[in-house]
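Is this the right way to post structure tokens for a design question? Let me know if I should format differently. Anyway, here goes:
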């Protein structure tokens, strides 16, 4: 059995399967049978012959990119709206816009509760503590919403939050062609 080094890993030739780095189709020669791309020195990604593998674009999968839109709030939302392979995917754009809108709401509500806490604290220490505990509850609620949308988007679902979800859908659909401009995950 001869050894072939592919991508730095020594695999037996019989168990090595090469995939096109452009479209993910299984390759057997120098050119991809689906898109015609010439094989590179590493022959794309290598996988064992356990079964068919769904083709995916190089980089992150859509569900991982969707979940990462929420990780650092509006910063990662903006990043995924700018990165080329992801800014053309409607699902990733939806999650990026929803992440941005959710963070704007979180910042506005947190600022409002903080101002109320300061005002009530100036009137009475006990009132300030009560509003301060409200601040903790609001923070916990937003944290749970953040975990929920990140988890559901990682599972490939489209959690549409009230008010900001439809706004995110409209923004995500704005750059689509007329034949591709349906709503995300909903019947029209």
């Amino acid at each position: 059995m001869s050894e072939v080094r592919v991508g730095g890993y020594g695999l037996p030739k019989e168990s090595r399967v090469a995939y096109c780095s452009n479209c993910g189709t299984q390759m057997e020669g120098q050119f991809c049978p689906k898109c015609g791309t010439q094989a590179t020195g590493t022959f794309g990604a290598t996988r064992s012959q356990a079964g068919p593998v769904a083709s995916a674009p190089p980089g992150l999968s859509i569900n991982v990119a969707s979940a990462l839109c929420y990780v650092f709030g509006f910063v990662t939302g903006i990043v995924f709206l700018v990165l080329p392979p992801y800014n053309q995917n409607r699902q990733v754009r939806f999650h990026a816009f929803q992440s941005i809108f959710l963070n704007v709401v979180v910042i506005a509500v947190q600022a409002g509760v903080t101002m109320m806490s300061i005002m009530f604290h100036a009137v009475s220490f006990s009132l300030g503590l009560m509003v301060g505990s409200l601040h903790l509850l609001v923070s916990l609620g937003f944290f749970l919403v953040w975990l929920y949308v990140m988890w559901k988007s990682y599972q490939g679902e489209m959690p549409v939050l009230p008010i900001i979800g439809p706004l995110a859908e409209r923004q995500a659909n704005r750059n689509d062609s007329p034949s591709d401009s349906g709503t995300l995950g909903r019947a029209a």
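Format looks fine. Someone answered above. Worth noting: The chain has six helices and five strands. The chain has two domains: 3-47, 62-177.
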